[in-house]
Amino acid sequence: MAFIQTDIFTLRGYECDATGRLSIPALMNLMQESANRNATEYGIGITDLASQGFGWMLMRFNLRMHQYPRYGQTIQLLTYPTVVEKYFIYRDFRLLADDGTLLADAASTWLVFSMEKRAMVPLPDFIHTLSVPAGIEPLPKLLLKPDFQVTVWQATDEKRVEVGWFSIDQNQHVNNVAYVQWLLESVDVATLKTRELAEIDLVFRTESHWNDQLRVQSAREKSNAFLHRIVQEESGKDVLLARSRWR
Question: Which of 5, 50, 56 is nearest to 31 (CA)?
Fold first, then answer.
């Protein structure tokens, strides 16, 4: 059993955007797949947790794109846990070209929640048995409260979304990649057509479910950066806070 999960993919047309580059939602889906394969090897995958009444939830995610692969290119995706704490487990990702060039990397923070109570719980004992081998050099831990979390938030653009059936995952809540796609599609057309995403930093705050009404908001922070927020219409709760940086 390898500690580092390595998956090789050849990019298909539906995984690429209008320019022929790997799309961010497709990359995040590939990352989720590799992460679950790795977790399953250790007996802590989606099915393993569900059998005991638990589920994984992504709390923090920071993705940096160094170079975009394109349609037909073969890529390697590596992922591995880095630290296990009382409430959180940290996982890194690296995306490589077939010649070893680093295309992207990502740091993430995950928690476990009770399916019955829909609330965070301490990591169960069977997860704490995971031992990270020596020699792993993790990316810096993500802050629980990032610097873009502000108390007064003035959105300049807003779209409304109703959560559909195909945005729901096995944990019976919206899959985190669906949020990212809605968020990116809220960015102005000129940015989408003339720039590429360099970095996205995400903070997931609460769940949303089938038929929920959401407001997807954004505001320009700098010439090359946006702040984002997804809010539940009914409760007013923040579902997601984010910052995206473009080049």
Answer: 5
pLDDT at 1 over 60: no
Taken as a whole, the chain contains a residue count of 247
What is the Cα–Cα distance from 188 to 65, expressed in whole angstroms? 20
Contact 202, 240 (CB under 8 A): yes
| CA-wise closest residue to 31 among 72, 80, 71 | 80
Residues whose CB is less than 8 angstroms from the CB of residue 48 and which lie 6 or more positions away in sequence, other chains included = 39, 40
End-to-end CA distance of the chain: 39
Specify the CATH number for 5-128; select among 3.40.50.920, 3.30.1300.10, 3.40.50.720, 3.10.129.10: 3.10.129.10
pLDDT digits (tens, 9 = 90+) for 150-209: 656 678 889 999 999 999 998 899 999 999 999 999 999 999 999 999 999 999 999 999
pLDDT at site 151: 57
Q: What is the dihedral of CA 97, 99, 105, 108, to 10 degrees?
A: 90
Say which residue the tokens 């301490």 belong to.
122
Instruction: Write down the pTM of the prediction.
Output: 0.94
Task: Read off the pLDDT of each residue in 54-64 and give the average, rounded to a whole number.
Answer: 96
Q: How far apart are CA 125 and CA 84, in angstroms?
A: 11
DSSP designation for 211: T
